[in-house]
């Protein structure tokens, strides 16, 4: 195993951030200030470190090396471990939210920090797991998604987004000129509905009833209600509200990243109106070293859409994919400022789409 592969352990540093904030509070740092520490690190320190540490565009040198990397259990275990680590951290953050002497601004900071880390440890890890074959990894991914209340992502992402990406039919593909705020709101409202519809269609094809245990959405709903009830019993009404709110923030964080990953890109249509096959040209790519460690190479999203079952450690950097100017942490912050985002990205989109259209016609 390569030395750089140990860099994926960096994902657990995000889990340590609330613990660090808690420790600093007990070292007499103002609680309302400490509550914002995880958020400041993720969206302040990490983008700066991305600039300092630069990119790592290296790929497996050949198919033999890729197969060896794919077979190494170390990489799978790391993603499996993230699920119990996140669940324990969520319980810790919930307890602190209901016991620390936080004023409203500090409570907001603690909530946003928890939801952001949920986006990394729950949703991002689940994204890796739900794409895999077998029973264990998809179930672990479903549990992680349920812990943030966005379990419909497991269905809609696989059966909806990956089919329709880069087309008007895909809610998770942002249009050129679209602001992140209406995009996220639309995605949060429409993607769960799409998941219920897709699951109903699957059950109908199989001749199975909608209101049965065969309905995956019903099973995850029951688990979410169980988690909500446990939160209420353990930490009262405040704990239950915290559980719901952190999930909404984690889901919104995911949709901002979806906005970044596909902004303005489109698939060409042939004379019969059929969309071209999804390739590595239909998602934005980034190879910043640090954020790829933190996110299990989610930023190599171009290759992921071309090869959805490919494990994170063997995802490829494609130089001819559309390239983001920096990593996801920095792009997330930029997306929240629409005029700055459009100034940075719109011309890149137009240039790449024009080049891609010419290539499709050739």
From TrEMBL:
Keyword Cell cycle attributed: no
Main location: membrane
Keywords recorded for this protein, A-Z: Cell inner membrane, Cell membrane, Iron, Membrane, Metal-binding, Monooxygenase, Oxidoreductase, Transmembrane, Transmembrane helix
Domain named Fatty acid desaturase: residues: 108-332
Pfam families: FA_desaturase (PF00487)
One GO cellular component, as annotated: plasma membrane
Annotated transmembrane regions: 33-53, 74-97, 109-126, 222-245
The protein's name: Alkane 1-monooxygenase
